[in-house]
Amino acid sequence: MKINRIILTGALTLLGIFAAVQPAALQAQTDYDIYQNAFQVTVPINVTNFNFTPVTIPTGKRLVIQNVSMSGAAQTNGADVQPIIIFATTLGTETSNNRFFAPLEDPQVPGQYYADFETTMYADTLSVSPAFSGYTPTFMAFNVVITGFLVSMPDPPPAAAIGRGGNATPFTHDLLR
After folding, report:
1. DSSP string, the chain
2. What pTM value is reported for the model?
3. What are the distances in angstroms from CA 39 to CA 96, 102, 106, 149, 154?
4. Within its chain, how far is the Cα of 128 from the centroid?
5. Contact (CB, 8 A) for 143 and 44
6. Alpha-carbon distance 22 to 10, whole Å?
7. How distant, in Å, are the alpha carbons of 44, 68, 130 from that of 115?
8. φ and ψ of 161, to 5 deg
9. Residue range 16-69, pLDDT digits in tens
């Protein structure tokens, strides 16, 4: 019984050491990494532009969005309006994914809206658009600040790996030919 406990303790200790030495998917960012790869842009949107405004992402890079901050104003002739900001992102050749953010109205200043959202979004392409819920706004203007960092796109898998789940090792039946 004592030997089993010693073996179990030793195995767990080794696993803890391996996890500490090589943490999964954790990479420390140095000041140089932040300097090289930091991303911040302000996208102005308003009620007269209900189109998606594209955000330029450098070729060969993927944007990792960490924070979205919004400030602006909206008014309506109706009872109320809720401004909404839509983020349309794509990864590779996939279809667009939309994320919706609704800033809260300042209780002290009606018609003023502010929000700061921590998030994680990945984008090879990104577009931002205004939207609303409630009555049609007679006025709506926002500055949307997007912050995050850029990562380099990995090289595509070798042609032999395509269609094999990314694994370049041939299937057993391929070896028998």
Report:
1. -HHHHHHHHHHHHHHHHHHHHS-TT--PPPHHHHHHHEEEEEEEEETT--SPEEE---TTEEEEEEEEEEEEEEEESSS-EEEEEEEEEE-TTSPPEEEEE-PEEPSSSTTEEEEEEEEEEEESEEEEEEEEEESPEEEEEEEEEEEEEEEEPPPPPPGGGTTTTT--SPPHHHHT-
2. 0.70
3. 21, 23, 28, 5, 19
4. 13
5. yes
6. 18
7. 15, 8, 14
8. -85, -20
9. 444 444 444 445 566 777 778 899 999 999 888 788 999 999 999 999 999 999
Instruction: Identify the bridge partners of residue 55 per DSSP, sorted by sequence position.
Output: 126
Q: Is the CA virtual torsion 22, 25, 26, 30 positive or negative?
A: positive
Assess contact for 133 and 56: CB atoms under 8 A: no
- Which among 167, 170, 172 has a CA at the least distance from the CA of 157? 167
CA dist 88 and 43 (Å) reads: 13
CB 65 within 8 A of CB 120: yes
Tokens representing 35 are 């300097």
Please identify which residue in the block is written with the tokens 């090792």. Answer: 169
- Domain boundaries of the chain, sorted by first residue: 43-152
CATH class of 43-152: mainly beta
The two structure tokens encoding residue 17 = 């050491």
